[in-house]
Structure formats: C-alpha cells, structure tokens
Amino acid sequence: MIVLITGCSSGFGLATAVAFAQRGDAVVATARDPARAAALQDAHMRFANLSIERLDVTDQGSINAAVAATVDRHQRIDVLVNNAGIGVLGALELVDEPTLRAVFDTNVFGAMAVTRGVLPHMREQKSGRVIFMNAIGGILTTAFLGAYCASKHALDCIAAVYDLELRPFGVRVSSVYPSAFHTAMGGNLSLVAGEGTAYAEPTRAYFEGLSQRIASGPTDLSPVVDAVVDAATSPDPPLRYPVASHLSEVLGPTLEALDALHRRELSMTPGISRPA
Ligand SMILES: NC(=O)c1ccc[n+]([C@@H]2O[C@H](COP(=O)([O-])OP(=O)(O)OC[C@H]3O[C@@H](n4cnc5c(N)ncnc54)[C@H](OP(=O)(O)O)[C@@H]3O)[C@@H](O)[C@H]2O)c1
Question: What are the structural domains, with CATH classification, of the chain?
Fold first, then answer.
C-alpha cells in the first residue's frame, strides 16, 4: 500500500509511519519542517520504503506539492492518515479568536485540505482509506479544552459525512480516538492561563492535572498505531476506533448509539447500495 501521513515529526505520526514501513508499505511521511524532524530522519535511514516530504497542513502549496510527489513516485495513494494536530488549553471565554482559528486551521481545515487533495486520486482508483486522528475529546466535552474538543467534534462529524459520501467510490473513512498518551503533545499544548481572572486558578489546576496525565500516560503508542493499521487494512473497518480502555464502560453505549445512527444514515444515503 502507498500511505501518506501528516505530522510525522513525533508521537503518533512517527510511530504510525514506522509501523507501516515495518509492514513493507511505501510510506510518505510528512512533516512541516523535515530538517528539524531528527527522529523521522532516523526512520528514513532505517527504512528504504519510508520517504519524507514537507507538508504543513495550513499551507496549500505544500499540500499540493506533497500529494503530487506521492502520485508521481507511486502512481496512487491507498491510505491517508490525517494525524497532524495542535492543542490549546484555557477557559473557552478567554480563548481569543486568532487562537481559536489557529486550532481549527490545523485540526479541521488543514485535515480537510489534505483530504481534498487526495480524494480525486482515491475516487479515480475506486479505492482508498482516509483515517483521522481524533481524540476522546472529539466525543466527550471537557472543561478548559473547549477549543480543542470543538475542533475534534467537528472532525468527528466531517469523518462521518465523508464516510457516507465516499463509500460509493470505494473509499472508507475511520477515526481513531485516543485518550492521553505520552507524546510531544503535552509540551506542545499552548496555554491561555487567564492570569488576573477568576479562571486562573482552575485553569492552572486543570493544566497541571492534564500535564501529569500525559506525562504518566502510556509511552507504548501501539494501541493507537494498531487501530490506524486496522482502519487501513480491515475489509470492513468501523467508523470509530476508541482507544481508551478505562472509559469503555461509559463510552460503549454512546458509541453503539452513534454507530446505529450512522448505519441508519448509510441505509438512507443515495448511491449506497447496501447498508454497512
Ligand atoms: N497524545 C495524546 O494524548 C493525544 C490524545 C488524543 C489525540 N491526540 C491527537 O494525536 C495527533 C498527534 O498528536 P501527538 O500526541 O502525536 O502529539 P505530537 O507529538 O505533538 O504530534 C503532533 C504532530 O502534528 C504536527 N503538526 C502540528 N501542526 C502542524 C501543521 N500545521 N502541519 C503539519 N504538521 C503539524 C507536529 O509537527 P511539529 O513537530 O512541526 O510541531 C507533530 O508532528 C493530534 O491530532 C492529537 O490531537 C493526541
């Protein structure tokens, strides 16, 4: 398979790129600044089937160039993993519009722009898999992570609609919803501290708690990577892959209800001959 992945400088993106390379797939691992992505360069040295392209999901020119380079080299794209993402922590009232827009530009519009670049090739091939790295925050709503959760909720909706619209073209769509794992995300989270406001104290408490959860979270990223690989390879992948075992009891009924609603939509969507 030919696999294109965004945000491969660290964390889930890097681990996923390595996992596909180990399987023998041709991986185009992208990063917005490959020269600074030392671990990714190291993976490139280890795997001849892992190449690196520059791709900033907020830069349309870089998306066009990375997709064109992939198609030129491999003539097709079987799997797109929309992994790149950023987070912001702060009371929703205090997250200003430029910050909100920056989160949505990367997590939502960026992922949509990359997907838009790849879909014509997948529709022409009549096959493909699009996988979104979502978060448990794309299903739950969490205080002080409102901007991030809102972007991931939007991505949950977008993935479901793509799945409805793309099945007739042989393209399947899935999202993976991890809880806190130990990646670079903790250090990359921007903070709206709300100093001098009534939000300052609870924001600090939440930030410390979350930093602790991420720092003490699993360093073994394989449950998330395995879900992505399954979404890419299973003959009939589910729309949603939760990776949060401690929440399975409470999430189970919600996900079952969401699945039933999605199956209902599939059965009512023109162009889809048989329900999933
Ligand atoms: N870690 C968790 O607990 C957790 C839980 C749920 C969901 N997630 C999701 O998992 C995904 C990956 O995060 P991670 O945990 O692996 O954190 P990470 O190590 O910080 O990785 C985030 C990646 O996104 C890249 N990125 C950010 N903005 C970009 C842009 N404009 N264009 C291209 N790449 C960009 C970063 O590149 P740079 O190095 O250039 O910044 C980095 O490679 C994100 O979508 C995140 O929301 C993480």
Answer: 2-248 (3.40.50.720)
